[in-house]
């Protein structure tokens, strides 16, 4: 069960990082060389914040799982 929670945290980190990569690409591609805007970047900026929060929350889940596993090993030893 603990390893499943750790895996869920790791998967959340991966998904959030992929979302951040996509947001960054979308933001970077929104401008022309002359500086004029091709499209609105408000949505990818908001999504970037959401993806960042997902990575942070998933990292906390992963850390908690790791600490629980360490405690379990200490109890068993």
TrEMBL record:
This is Flagellar biosynthesis protein FlgE. It comes from Thiorhodococcus mannitoliphagus. It comes from the Bacteria.
């Amino acid at each position: 069960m603990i390893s499943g929670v750790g895996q869920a945290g790791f998967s959340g980190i991966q998904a959030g990082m992929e979302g951040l990569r996509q947001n960054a690409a979308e933001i970077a591609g929104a401008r022309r060389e002359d500086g004029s805007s091709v499209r609105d970047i408000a949505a990818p900026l908001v999504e970037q914040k959401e993806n960042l929060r997902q990575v942070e929350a998933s990292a906390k889940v992963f850390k908690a799982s790791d600490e629980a596993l360490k405690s379990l090993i200490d109890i068993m030893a």
